[in-house]
Amino acid sequence: MHRRPPSRAARPFRVLASFLSAGALLTCAACSGGGDSEGSGTVHDSASDVAASPLAAESPLASARTGRSASPRATKSAAPVLTPAGAKAALITEADLEDSWTQVKGADVWRDKLVIGKVDVADFLTAKTNAADCQKLLDALYDDTLLGKPSGASALTGFEESNSRLLYQVAAYDRAKLGTSLNWLKTLPVKCDQFTATDSKGGHRTVQVIEDPLPSVGDARQGLQVTVTGMSGDEPTTLTLQLAVVRVGTDAITVTSGGLDGTETDTTKAAVQSGTSHLKDVLAGRTPPAQPDNLD
Length: 296
Description:
- The chain has a nine-stranded antiparallel beta sheet.
- The protein starts with 9 loop residues before the first helix and ends in a 13-residue tail after the last helix.
- The protein is α+β, with helices and mostly antiparallel strands.
- The protein is built from seven helices and nine strands.
């Protein structure tokens, strides 16, 4: 019995079927994550492939979610937050100040009655709104709120030398409000260059405000000198205060120093320089040195 040779039409069909089956297998292998041969031009972006790479696990820019390398902009670290412990560590000490300043307790309740008074609006014939700013200054000097109330951690300390005092504060603030407060302080030498305040007994005090340059430290800064002249009992009295504010990010240090014996500019500058350095160290995760670099 003779077999019939296969028809010519059937052979191309079998060849085509075999070709299609092989192509399907190759396609499935590619979908399963198999490796490509060199020069194939095929690029895979599988998260599992990247996560399995030892380099991805070691990369500081690796995403915690997929292990995929991320752009520096996407992984930019958040600004450091000042903690209560950090604020305390950023305070200055006696070693940061020159001369014979002594650290004392109870600085948080210091209040100087010579700055209490009601601004005489009559001094501001053409700029009534300036009177409100000058009143705000006197009130802030009394309750130590030159930058408003802190929005986060804060700490303060105080020092005495003869009839002079130095109050040092470090605190976290709302960024927008902190900027507004600094801008307000910058306007005071013009708005409140000289005015009169009346005390509770009707006595008059002359207040003068001038700008006081500070060392170029921090992200922004403002210095003022405020002089209050009046009577204390039956004696003429002059209180002179130096105000220094330095912003570091969204945190700031505030120095209020002076007294009936005048001010000591070198001491204020030392407090500002050392204080700014301490705050930067704390925000960078470092412990401020016990002895400042600029003192022996």
